Amino acid sequence: MKVSQNRTKAIGVFDSGLGGLTVARAIRNQLPSEDIVFLGDIARVPYGSRSSSTVCKYAQACAKTLHEQNIKVLVVACNTVSAVALELLRKNCNYPVLGVIEPGAREGANVTPGGHIGVIATHRTVASGGYEKAIKLVDSTIKITSNPAPLLVPLAEEGWVDGEVAKLVIQRYLEPLVSVNIDTLILGCTHYPLLRHTIEEQLEKMSGRQLPVVDSALATAKELQLLLEKSGLSCQEDTKGSLTILVTDMPEKFSETAMRFLDGIILKENIIQVDI
Amino acid sequence: MKVSQNRTKAIGVFDSGLGGLTVARAIRNQLPSEDIVFLGDIARVPYGSRSSSTVCKYAQACAKTLHEQNIKVLVVACNTVSAVALELLRKNCNYPVLGVIEPGAREGANVTPGGHIGVIATHRTVASGGYEKAIKLVDSTIKITSNPAPLLVPLAEEGWVDGEVAKLVIQRYLEPLVSVNIDTLILGCTHYPLLRHTIEEQLEKMSGRQLPVVDSALATAKELQLLLEKSGLSCQEDTKGSLTILVTDMPEKFSETAMRFLDGIILKENIIQVDI
Fold it and tell me: What pLDDT, on the 0 to 100 scale, is given for residue B1?
């Protein structure tokens, strides 16, 4: 199966599920003329609860599927894969491979006013230490406090993004970070931007001040723009690029959930089921 | 790979993930001398968000793996598979196949005092109409009101089974059921027994009376006992049976989560990873 790319080579983006659509959305806003092919491996989501060897195997299958789409850059819009399999993918691809952890970590390191960053992410991403390592590469004096916030994923998928339950869950996850006086918060999971407003609101309420909140999806889109410009890979057309979504399964509620992540900008005919 | 069954043929139990361990636990309590082989397909969990054809394919692979363990009965400890693939499995097996929906539905139909049953389950199970169909087969005059309660799964897995968040989430899910005056509640997901205490507490608080709460895992264990006795398949030994757990992946936090479902009764050497 080959999606037609008659204008230029596309940007390939993949995630274990639909969370990575927040990255595709950010890229589309940042680079509107680029063609984007997004692959969501929803037949095997979530990767966060799999072993490292299984994650590597799945990530390679996703990269191969996007490789067949004639892409010019591969964006790994999945924190688990970014933490576990990025080097492996880089070794096997002859084009740039960008994860979501490094851009988020770099932006966090740049904006932290006092050098104490809080990170919320899934259990798996926190356990990987990926954000810590990437932040320390920029500035080894920065202090990092991480807390897993797994329930934010189903809250985002259900659309319970504000209201009493979301507030209480967010407070519970932020409490250990606010109590040690973090001065910057990184949203280390691609689902969390859907809850950004409530997270910012509770963080301000709990800490008594406005703190910078870093969205890894936005940070990745900005780094991707620089990367394409530097490598001479940017699309030179000024018409609107296409967005194609490949999925490895097509469950009944798929469109509804996808729309929630994309603000309704995808047409059904641009969603294609693939076997990988 | 063949797990030794030197006493008798075993009871095979499978689920997409670990929720089905509540069924294995109930069977172990009900039938302590039976050997049980549980298969958790955690490399491909959750089935609830997959298409029906994918669920059928996965269910057949699980059944085949347990078939190779020389089992005498197959218990489908997964509501999604019970709703979608039970007939298919029955056609392909030469021993009894028992799902979790029919026993829960039958017990609900037997205990409802006024004939109005509420069902909470995942989106997928509710959409399948499985509980409605099974209850109507017992008594077509019974009224059924269902409400998806998907967040209870991650709450159970995280161990947030009481406290303010669990109470609020449960209240939100029970409200549409209590407001139409259900007189019985079926817990239609294998994860929910972990939250049973808080569910019963909130149900009583909201409805102002004690209502029967049906746990499909317990109902299934009771029906299994009758089935084995009727078919002459019961184990005749009176020593304690074994519990073997097969898993299709072995993530880092596996033991911790498994213990939560089993009350810590499993030894690490009885957990075996298999490829299916």
Answer: 45
Interface contact flag, B251 A127, Cβ < 8 Å: no
pLDDT value for B7: 58
Query: What is the model's pLDDT at position B10?
Result: 96
B132, B109 Cβ separation under 8 angstroms: no
Rounded to whole angstroms, the Cα distance separating A57 from A148 reads 25
Q: What pLDDT does A158 receive?
A: 87
> How near does any CA of chain A get to the CA of B172, in Å?
9
Positions in chain B short of pLDDT 50: 1-6
Q: Are residues B49 and A251, on separate chains, in Cβ contact within 8 Å? A: yes
Does residue B27 contact residue B36 with C-beta atoms inside 8 Å?
yes
Residues β-bridged to residue A144: A117
Tell how strand B116-121 and strand A36-40 pair up: unpaired
- CB proximity A123 to B under 8 Å: yes
Active site residues of B: 78, 189
Peptide bond into B251 cis (omega under 30): no
Q: Tens digit of pLDDT for each residue in A113-154?
A: 999 999 999 888 898 899 999 999 999 999 999 999 999 999
Q: How far is A32 from chain B (nearest CA, A)?
A: 31
Residue whose C-alpha is closest to residue B46's, from B207, B154, B155: B154
Q: Which of A29, A30, A12, A24 is CA-nearest to residue A229?
A: A30
Q: Is the peptide bond before B32 cis (omega within 30 degrees of 0)?
A: no
The residue from A56, A62, A78, A93 that is catalytic is A78
pLDDT tens-digit map of B240-264 = 899 999 999 876 667 777 877 877 6
Does B53 reach chain A within 8 Å, measured CB to CB?
A: no
Does A158 lie at the interface with B, CB-CB under 8 angstroms?
Answer: yes
Give the whole-angstrom CA distance, residue B68 versus residue B47: 22
Do residues A108 and A117 make contact, with C-beta atoms less than 8 angstroms apart?
yes
Contact A51 B172 (CB under 8 A): no
Through-space distance between the first and last CA atoms of chain B, rounded to whole angstroms: 11
Which residues of chain A neighbour B44 with C-beta distances below 8 Å? 43-44
DSSP character string of A165-190: HHHHHHHHHHHHHHTTT-SEEEE-ST
- In this prediction the pTM is 0.84
Question: Is residue A160 within 8 Å of residue A109, measured between CB atoms?
Answer: no
Query: In this structure, what token pair is assigned to residue A236?
Result: 């030179």
By the 8 A CB rule, do A63 and A96 touch? no
Taking an 8 Å cut-off on Cβ atoms, the answer to whether A168 and B168 are in contact is yes
